[in-house]
Design a protein that fits this description.
The complex is a heterodimer of chains A (about 110) and B (about 120). Chain A is an all-beta fold. Chain A is built from no helices and 11 strands. In chain A, the strands form 2 sheets. In chain A, strands 2, 4, 5, 6, 9, 10 and 11 form a 7-stranded mixed beta sheet that branches. The model of chain A has no long low-confidence stretch (mean pLDDT about 95). The radius of gyration of chain B is 14 Å and the shape is globular. In chain B, a hairpin with a 5-residue loop joins strand 4 and strand 5. In chain B, about 0% of the residues lie in helices and about 50% in strands. The chains are: A mainly beta (about 110), B mainly beta (about 120). At the A-B interface, strand 4, strand 5 and strand 10 of A face strand 5 and strand 10 of B.
Chain lengths: ~110, ~120
């Protein structure tokens, strides 16, 4: 199975900060990577697909990059609504696997 | 508007069975792969399994943790997805989400829309 490792597991930041979350795959997954945002008690929401493609309706402050085994999710200017948990997920190979999550909280 | 609504969760004893349903609307269900993803209380996301569309002969994939115990099926005429869970274990306790597969025109499919989830508790 492909292991997805997110770092950091928790990130403390302030409104307006630029934040970056890293996701590493244990094998090459090309660009078959998605990023999801999940708020407490809610279903995950797709932000980015194929490593760098912004899902329709997602604010442009979110961006994704990377290929192979190293990927990043960047929020260019953190907004109050962004303080929540983010997951990466590979869809290159079965079983589909998720990273452990990164919680972004208020500094 | 795309909607996915799960039902069928509840409390079940270890070794028992449960069948979850997911009714969808707002899109052509038969075109899409469909998935189940679960989340144990306070934990991260775990993919459970996938059923492909008719064009791909409704073939299925499962996580090793549920293979042989869980079965995914669908009824395109009813816009419905199902998860039959047998031989349930305490570690199967989780919120179960159905999710729509989407390819964006590429060869690989991810999930773009999710239901609100249904809680399954396995406990004696």
């Amino acid at each position: 199975d492909i292991q997805m490792t997110q770092s950091p597991s928790t990130l403390s930041a302030s409104v307006g900060d630029r934040v970056t979350i890293t996701c590493r795959a244990s094998q090459i997954i090309y660009t078959w990577l998605a990023w999801y945002q999940q708020k407490p008690g809610k279903a995950p929401k797709l932000l980015i697909y194929k490593a760098s493609n912004l899902e329709s309706g997602v604010p442009s402050r979110f961006s994704g990059s990377g290929s192979g085994t190293e990927f990043t999710l960047t929020i260019s200017s953190l907004q109050p609504d962004d303080f929540t948990t983010y997951y990466c997920q590979q869809y290159s190979t079965y079983p589909l696997t998720f990273g452990g999550g990164t919680r972004v909280d208020i500094k | 508007e795309v909607q996915l609504v799960e039902s069928g969760g509840g409390l079940v004893q270890p070794g028992g069975s449960l069948r979850l349903s997911c009714v969808v609307s707002g899109f052509t269900f038969s075109d899409h792969y469909m998935d189940w993803v679960r989340q144990a209380p306070g934990e991260g996301l775990e993919w459970v399994g996938r059923i492909r569309n008719k064009a791909k002969s409704y073939t299925t994939e499962y996580a090793a943790s549920v293979g042989g115990r869980f079965t995914i099926s669908r009824d395109d005429s009813k816009n419905s997805l199902y998860l039959q869970m047998n031989s349930l274990k305490t570690e199967d306790t989780a919120v179960y989400y159905c999710a729509r597969g989407h390819s964006y025109g590429y060869s690989n499919w991810l999930f773009d829309y999710w239901g609100q989830g249904t809680l399954v508790t396995v406990s004696s």
